[in-house]
């Protein structure tokens, strides 16, 4: 069956609110500079009201990834929950403007739309305050069966494995994808996320619920509770059919059984902000994977997309990735 989408992502639907500020603002609001703090709705409203003028853009890990797929000329969709409020409207409009199919119905009551309030000080340091709100209320009823069945890859964000209804939504989506002969991918998201759900992630892999896993080196070591990369990698090849492991400046690796393919990191003039590097690497790889490219080609697209996003502030590409890839001799 011909795919209508290359990739559909499931994840936290978050509005990133970025503004520049002084260190005095952080001190006045009791913030730990350079950190990421989970906050409640009252705190989110207080900080949001006190922030200066900023840029508001749809965010969240899987949303960043599908935005990268769209920027490469791919057909992308997203499933994530917002509330029917001002920020929810911003999220829906922004993600649609990026060329991403988004049909998740907004919540009419309950928690407000999730937001990440990002304060950037003159030294370029980012201090983040995240309220997860409505994003955590994704449920099986929100799974768009038609979109999932019509997507070459269903991509699941590990960050959203916290709330039980979201887990059920993930499992439902994976079942629909496999029934339609499609692939299911999981990003482990964060080493702390792996610490919380190690046994459950391993079960998803070993049971064949996911076919492709994305991890960085820290997440992989956490998954297998070892400081030795080679030991963790060897076990990974036994637990999942395919995996992609990113290693920052050391490049990235594809493993599938005894097959291993490595590519170097793409050169960057200056690293400005590493936020979104993993998300955009996944975008490049998934774009190639969905189109049947060889692992090395897909890895190089991932490396290119990651290099673009770390060269500026923010977790979304500023340049057209399709054109950038073509300039560097990569097919899209």
TrEMBL record:
Is RNA-binding there in the keyword field? no
Q: Where is the Carbohydrate kinase PfkB domain?
A: 56-316
What is a GO molecular function of this protein? Answer: kinase activity
Pfam (any one): PfkB
Keyword annotations from UniProtKB, A to Z: Kinase, Transferase
UniProt family annotation? Belongs to the carbohydrate kinase PfkB family.
Q: What is this protein's record name?
A: Adenosine kinase
């Amino acid at each position: 069956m011909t795919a209508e989408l290359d990739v559909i992502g499931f994840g936290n639907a978050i509005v990133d609110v970025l503004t520049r500020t002084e260190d005095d603002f952080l001190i006045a609001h009791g913030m730990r500079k350079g950190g990421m703090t989970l906050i409640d709705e009252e705190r989110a409203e207080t900080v949001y009201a006190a922030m200066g003028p900023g840029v508001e853009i749809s965010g969240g890990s899987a949303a960043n990834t599908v935005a990268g797929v769209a920027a490469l000329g791919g057909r992308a969709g997203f499933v994530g929950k917002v509330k029917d409020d001002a920020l929810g409207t911003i999220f829906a409009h922004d993600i649609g403007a990026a060329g991403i199919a988004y049909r998740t119905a907004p919540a009419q009551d309950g928690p407000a739309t999730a937001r990440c309030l990002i304060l950037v000080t003159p030294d370029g340091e980012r201090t983040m305050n995240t309220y997860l709100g409505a994003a955590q209320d994704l449920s099986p009823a929100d799974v768009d069966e038609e979109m999932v069945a019509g997507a070459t890859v269903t991509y699941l964000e590990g960050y959203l494995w916290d709330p039980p209804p979201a887990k059920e939504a993930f499992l439902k989506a994976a079942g629909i994808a496999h029934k339609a002969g499609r692939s299911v991918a999981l990003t482990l998201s964060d080493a702390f996320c792996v610490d919380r759900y190690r046994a459950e992630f391993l079960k998803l892999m070993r049971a064949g619920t996911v076919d492709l896993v994305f991890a960085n080196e820290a997440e992989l070591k956490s998954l297998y509770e070892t400081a030795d990369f080679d030991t963790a990698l060897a076990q990974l090849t036994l637990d999942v059919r395919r995996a992609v492991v990113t290693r920052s400046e050391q490049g990235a690796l594809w493993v599938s059984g005894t097959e291993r393919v490595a590519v170097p990191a793409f050169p960057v003039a200056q690293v400005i902000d590493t936020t979104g590097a993993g998300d955009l690497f996944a975008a490049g790889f998934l774009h190639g994977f969905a189109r049947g490219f060889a692992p090395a080609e897909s890895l190089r697209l991932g490396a290119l997309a990651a290099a673009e996003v770390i060269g500026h502030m923010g977790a979304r590409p500023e340049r057209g990735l399709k054109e950038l890839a073509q300039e560097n001799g990569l097919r899209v």
